[in-house]
């Protein structure tokens, strides 16, 4: 592998549901002129394909077959944002065969110049362990549930706060307790607790971390 300064810049942004990964990753990509991949969309695309085929997230081989068939076009479907699709994505993400099938897509995306910001759960630990910058976002479960509720309402989806909170807790438990690539910070990740921070403050802290890693001009 070429030295870090000769490789395309890769920024890994990991963390639990509704910690602010997408917002931060989009801003970092725009600021540093990098491409952005929301890797949750890949798992959601597998889930949507499977559900449309009347498959169940528990069926590892059927889910892996859908993972091998995912294309760029699948990532643009507005139905990917449905809560039921997110739930099914979390359920099928426990299968090692599904994760394996999505690895090449993610690594090829990261390797293409000028580089990329990837957000997900296992970018810094498994997908891009050599990423030059690794950021792990966390926030209290209550704040994450409140943010998710706001986002759902802004999309016109009426939801009950206690249900959103229970769903986030269940998602946290499943994503972090699975044996295949569980959600956890990489040993060399910089952690940012976004509980009391707005999007601008999160971006400023993250950009300071990236700037400190960039080779000096
Ligand atoms: O980030 P999200 O809510 O769109 O992701 C949906 C699910 O996909 C998430 O609960 C777990 C899974 N996922 C994963 O296992 N690894 C990733 N890198 C991204 C998402």
CATH level 1 class label: Alpha Beta
Strand content: 5-15%
Instruction: State the secondary-structure class.
Output: alpha/beta
CATH superfamily heading: P-loop containing nucleotide triphosphate hydrolases
Give the overall average pLDDT: 95
The kinds of small molecule bound in this structure are: 2'-deoxycytidine-5'-monophosphate
How far the N terminus sits from the C terminus, by CA atoms, comes to 23 Å
Shape: globular
- Rg from Cα: 17 Å
- Count the strands? 5
From the 3D structure, determine the CATH topology: Rossmann fold
CATH architecture: 3-Layer(aba) Sandwich
The major beta sheet can be summarized as: 5 strands, parallel
Strand order of the largest sheet: 2-3-1-4-5
Count of DSSP helices? 9
Low-confidence stretches: none
> What's the helix-strand series?
EHEHHHHEHEHHEH
How many domains, in number, for the residues? 1
Helix content: 40-55%
Protein model, in words:
The chain is of the alpha/beta class and 217 residues long. It has a single domain (4-211), classed as Rossmann fold. 52% of the residues lie in helices and 12% in strands. The protein has nine helices and five strands, in the order E-H-E-H-H-H-H-E-H-E-H-H-E-H. The protein has helices at 21-32, 39-52, 60-69, 83-92, 96-111, 123-127, 141-154, 161-177, 199-213, and strands at residues 9-14, 35-38, 115-120, 133-138, 190-193. Strands 2-3-1-4-5 form a five-stranded parallel beta sheet, with helices on both faces. The chain is globular and about 55 Å long. The mean pLDDT is 95. It binds 2'-deoxycytidine-5'-monophosphate. 2'-deoxycytidine-5'-monophosphate binds at residues 17, 39-40, 43-44, 86, 89-90, 93, 120-122, 171, 175. 2'-deoxycytidine-5'-monophosphate (DC) binds next to helix 2, helix 4 and helix 8.
């Amino acid at each position: 592998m070429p030295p870090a300064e000769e490789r395309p810049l890769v920024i890994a942004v990991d963390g639990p549901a509704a910690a602010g990964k997408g917002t931060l990753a989009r801003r970092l990509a725009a600021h540093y002129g990098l491409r952005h991949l929301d890797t949750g969309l890949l798992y959601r695309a597998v889930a949507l394909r499977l559900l449309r085929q009347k498959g169940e997230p528990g069926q590892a081989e059927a889910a892996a077959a859908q993972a091998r068939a995912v294309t760029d076009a699948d990532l643009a479907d507005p139905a990917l944002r449905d809560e039921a699709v997110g739930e099914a994505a979390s359920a099928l993400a426990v299968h090692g065969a599904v994760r394996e099938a999505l690895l090449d897509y993610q690594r090829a995306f990261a390797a293409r110049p000028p580089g990329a910001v990837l957000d997900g759960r296992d970018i810094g630990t498994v997908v891009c362990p050599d990423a030059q910058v690794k950021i792990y976002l966390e926030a209290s479960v209550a704040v994450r549930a409140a943010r998710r509720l706001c986002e759902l309402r802004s999309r016109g989806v009426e939801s009950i706060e206690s249900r959103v909170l229970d769903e986030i807790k269940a998602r946290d438990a499943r994503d972090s307790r699975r044996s295949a690539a569980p959600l956890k910070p990489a040993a060399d990740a910089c952690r940012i607790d976004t509980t009391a921070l707005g999007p601008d403050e999160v971006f400023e802290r993250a950009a300071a971390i990236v700037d400190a890693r960039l080779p000096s001009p």
